[in-house]
Amino acid sequence: MTGFGRGEVAADNLKAVIEMKSVNHRYCEIVLRMPRSMNVLEERIRRVIQEKIARGRVDVFVNIELLGANKPLVKVDEELAADYVRVANGIKDRLTLDGNVTVTELLHLPGVISLAEPENDVEQWWPVVREALAKALTGQLAMRLCEGDRLQKDIKNRSGQIGALVESIAQRSPLVTEEYREKLSQRLAELLAPGALDINRLETEVVIIAERASITEELVRLRSHLAQLDAAMESDVPVGRKLDFLMQEINREVNTIASKSADVQINRTVVEIKSVLEKIREQVQNIE
To answer: How far apart are CA 111 and CA 89, in angstroms?
Structure first.
């Protein structure tokens, strides 16, 4: 699911700014981008995020700004600068050249100036980083919640459509058996001599064939899967993987009905169900 969050906290000569953005992904993938000096905090940051987010690709950008006594200090290597000037003047005298080395040119020479990082205990940064992370997660989860509400309404609506189509198949199923019995009786009457048709035997064979082609069990399981789907959409825990599984099972039962039934009307309804199911399947990929 998509979302964005930002957290900024300043305290104890340190400012932490954390931005998070997430996009749809089948699994939980966390990509951290932060200063190398903070590597010791990486696992803790991951654990905090995983406690709140179970699915999606989450890009996390951590920026640390040192303040006050923690700010890096500029160091000047005056001995190295003097060597540069001496060498430059020597070349100028030997080759009879004009010009002098300016301060600006000197400061751009390698090694003349450098930043001295003060000794910092990264462990002491953690409370500030954790607070900024919590703020970023709050914003992120709020956006994901809004998207989740929209997906919930859409999926429940489509689940209701499938439920109505399943019930239309259930109403049609007994009629198919009766129609099949009548067609079989007429066909046998045409092929056999008068009086050669054993009605009792015919009824027995029709019952056997009907039992083999019965879709009652598939309809029962479909109703169960749809009920579980609706219940899952009301759950407060991550259900993305469960919904993936239910989509597979519903599709399996629908395919079985199609293979068992030769009725044109039922097969048309099956096509409608599969069309709606595919739309739900696409949405399920976005659900945590």
So the answer is: 19
Structure tokens at 172: 């049609």
Mean pLDDT, the chain cut into blocks of 10 residues (288 residues total)? 88 88 84 88 93 88 78 75 85 80 82 67 85 93 86 90 93 76 68 62 66 79 92 83 90 89 86 92 80
Alpha carbon distances (Å) from 264 to 55, 172, 250 = 41, 11, 20
| pTM, rounded to two decimals | 0.61
Sign of CA dihedral 259, 261, 263, 268: negative
Buried b (16+ CB within 10 A) or exposed e, 196-222: eeeeeeeeeebeeebeebebeebbeeb
In this structure, how many other beta carbons lie within 10 angstroms of the beta carbon of residue 273? 24
Handedness of CA 186, 188, 191, 197 (dihedral sign): negative
DSSP class of residue 237 equals S
Three-state SS at 99:
coil
Q: What are the residues facing 100 on neighbouring strands? A: none
Chain centroid to Cα 191, Å, comes to 61
Spatial CB neighbours of 254, under 8 Å, sequence gap ≥ 6? 222, 270, 273, 274, 277
